[in-house]
Design goal:
About 30% of the residues lie in helices and about 20% in strands. It folds into two domains: about 100 residues, TusA-like domain (Translation Initiation Factor IF3), CATH 3.30.110; about 240 residues, Aldolase class I (TIM Barrel). The protein contains nine helices and 15 strands. The structure holds iron/sulfur cluster.
Length: about 375
């Protein structure tokens, strides 16, 4: 992904458009519904009240067909559409349905996590897979950049001492870190989750590591679809079946397993099928996360993220600290270099948030030019 040539799309406030007066306007340029426009629209809709109108300008002909289909699916109403010329661009006014925001998206919703309560740690960057949308640019060839156990003992102790609660260990594939067990132990006393593709811990030394991990640790396993097709397309042939085996193994050993699916587009049919599958194997509803691809790392498309639209969840890696785990390759989201001082990292995040909150309270978007 190139950060420099991507259009920055900022929803604009109330205004008159060829399609009528709208509360918020999005200029979708030449994006089609499948390459990010629906995610932009969904995010903008979540900020509106039921009945408010969202204006959309699009230069992409397929949007004229696809947008009404999507609106009907989620219950919004196309109030008007106007073509400037036969070749476009097209203007739409879409009234938000009178349903809770949760019903308007298949993606899991969340709120702001108090800064200082949650910490992410990239244990390493190498991975047995090389998924097409990997935000960390991990692969078997990636430099491992492993977190050091002693550094983590100090950092996690500092985190606990200042009231930290949750620790998420991610990568890369954490089970490829030869000292994962010790990293997990260094976070003893915290609510701990390991994010894994569940494909490499079936035997040998990694199986031993798995079996020795405390059963209070949650295994969050990536599974993108109810059947192999979409998952294997993004993650590699055979990966779905091996992930399912890994889920079975972790559960048979007594671990709580959370399933996390990643997808480019709102896919209500695919998501419904996935929920059905997870019902069948007994994964609790609370243990399911459906999230969009972020336009970061290897991803070609997906949700554009920035410090201005992404609630912070600070991350440490072997070589620095970052605003959020999905933006670990984005130089604009870097908070600090190593060595890491958590107090300073959280301080920078809090200061940045207070400026953003003040601007939002004043009714302005934070639009950063530098
Ligand atoms: S998305 Fe996860 S499983 Fe896929 S390459 Fe990246 S770290 Fe590995």
């Amino acid at each position: 992904m190139k950060h420099d040539d991507r259009p920055l799309i900022v929803p604009q406030g109330p205004q008159d458009t060829p399609a009528g007066h709208v509360k918020t306007l999005i200029d979708g340029g030449d994006m089609d519904c499948g390459s990010g426009l629906l995610l932009l629209i969904t995010r903008a809709m979540r900020r509106l009240e039921a009945g408010d109108s969202l204006g959309i300008r699009s230069a992409e002909p397929s949007v004229e067909v696809d947008l009404p289909v999507w609106a009907e699916l989620v219950g919004h109403q196309i109030v008007s559409r106007v073509a400037e010329t036969e070749q476009g661009p097209w203007w739409f006014s879409v009234a938000k349905a009178g349903v809770p925001a949760e019903s308007a998206t298949v993606f899991s919703l969340g709120g702001r996590t108090p800064v200082g309560s949650r910490l992410w740690a990239y244990t390493n960057f190498d991975c047995n897979l090389a998924c097409l949308y990997c935000c960390a640019e991990s692969s078997p060839k990636a430099d491992a950049r492993r977190l050091d156990v002693d550094v983590c003992r100090d950092l996690f102790a500092e985190f606990k001492a200042q009231g930290g609660k949750e620790l998420f260990l991610t990568g890369g594939e954490p089970f490829m870190h030869p000292e994962l067990g010790q990293l997990v132990e260094a976070g003893d006393g915290l609510s701990r989750t390991i994010l894994t593709n569940a494909m490499v811990f079936g035997k040998g030394r990694r199986r031993e590591t798995l079996e020795n991990i405390d059963r209070s640790v949650v295994m969050q396993v990536s599974l993108d679809s109810a059947a192999p097709g979409p998952h294997d397309k993004m993650r590699g042939a055979g990966s779905w079946a091996r992930a399912m085996d890994g889920i079975d193994l972790a559960r048979s050993l007594g671990f709580q397993v959370r399933v996390a699916a990643t997808m480019f587009d709102e896919d209500p049919v695919g998501v419904a099928a996935l929920h059905e599958r997870l019902d069948a194997i007994g994964i609790d509803k609370e243990d399911r996360v459906i999230r969009p691809v972020a336009d970061e790392g290897f991803a070609e498309g997906g949700v554009h993220v920035s410090i201005d639209n992404l609630e912070p969840e600070p991350v440490i890696t072997a070589d620095g600290a970052w605003w959020h785990p999905v933006a670990i390759t984005n130089p604009h989201m870097r908070i600090a270099d190593a060595p890491l001082v958590l107090e300073e990292i959280f301080g920078v995040v809090r200061d940045t948030l207070s400026v953003q909150d003040a601007a939002e309270a004043a009714g302005r978007e934070v639009f950063r030019c530098a």
